[in-house]
Amino acid sequence: MPSSPSRPPRLRVAAVGTGGIARGNHLAALHAHAGRAELVAAVDVDRGRLDAFREAAGALGMPDVAGYDDLGAMLERARPDLVLIGTPPSLHRAQTVAALQAGAWVLCEKPLCLSLAEYDAIAEAEKSSGAYASVVFQHRYGSGAVHARELIAAGALGAPLVAHCQTTWYRDTAYYEVPWRGRWDSEGGGPTMGHGIHQYDLLLHLLGDWTEVRAMAARLVHDVESEDVSTALVRFANGAVATVVNSVLSPDEVSRIRIDCADATVELTHLYGHRNEDWVYTPRPGLADEARVARWRTPAADLPSSHAAQLGALLDAYERGERPPGSGPDARRTVEFAAALYKAAFTGLPVKAGEIATGDPFHEAMHGNHPDWAPREQK
């Protein structure tokens, strides 16, 4: 009897930051891919939080997770292949670079970094190490999003014309009592960086390169450094135009993307995650090709958007030795869009893709040292 092909060894995975996102989403993703990835270590400065994470991991069949309070010590002793980062945003760049320099791939919660300058430092660490850093944008990986992107890219819905991207959520005063929230140096911005980034990343994923942004931002309710609402007008390389709204002031919470193409409208409505049923395709009046319309509405599978879906795509790339999705220039495009939105909003001028380069204050920080928006201690 011929021998069966050997299974590739499981990746050694470490978690950095063991709070709610790691204990919930990251552990669930690792459990879903238990045959391909093994959690070997976790890092947190809070011992109680670390112990709770290790206990939760054990309950999911991951009992041998070594605990550390220092990232460097963990990287030296555990030698992970992949590091999952779920710490506050201000730590992401340094922790990502450290993991890359140790030869580990990285999957980091959004935002991957707080500025284009920080992103470029991560790109340099990738070049010198040969490892890759991806950012968690799990909404790209649900089957509904994969299907919609394939249809749009193939021209099956006709040319994209008009789009709307809406993240209208609600956060109360207590939410901003967490010290690192609402501050430029620790969160990088307001809902543009911390909330709406998931939806407009998906919009960019569906429509491709953007070419110009015009925007407005305001601080209407919360006593924070950054904005609590922003809006943008966007032009894409394919000619489509879009509106983007990012808000934490909206009692009726919803996340929505709508793209009107020449032959159909595709619309996604959800809050924090989507399934196939959340995507709706409406043919243009007079389109009578029922077989064509049926193909729009029937993805091959129903894979919810999730950390598990993205982790699966990253593991596929690792096994093939390829750059993973959501990294490199693809990830930089989303960071650049955020910087362009802030620059356009704070200066009142349109911003073109590629305009924010080294030496531009918005390359160094999302607030661009604008006198009305710079951190309070710098004014």
From TrEMBL:
Residue ranges annotated for the Gfo/Idh/MocA-like oxidoreductase N-terminal domain, each copy included: 11-135
Pfam families assigned: GFO_IDH_MocA, GFO_IDH_MocA_C3
GO MF annotation list: nucleotide binding
Span list, region Disordered: 360-379
Residue stretches of biased makeup (Basic and acidic residues): 361-379
SUPFAM superfamilies xrefs: Glyceraldehyde-3-phosphate dehydrogenase-like, C-terminal domain (SSF55347), NAD(P)-binding Rossmann-fold domains (SSF51735)
Boundaries of every GFO/IDH/MocA-like oxidoreductase domain copy: 147-266
InterPro entries: Gfo/Idh/MocA-like_OxRdtase_N (IPR000683), Gfo/Idh/MocA_Oxidoreductase (IPR052515), GFO_IDH_MocA-like_dom (IPR055170), NAD(P)-bd_dom_sf (IPR036291)
Protein name stated in the entry: Gfo/Idh/MocA family oxidoreductase
Organism: Streptomyces hoynatensis
Taxon lineage: Bacteria, Bacillati, Actinomycetota, Actinomycetes, Kitasatosporales
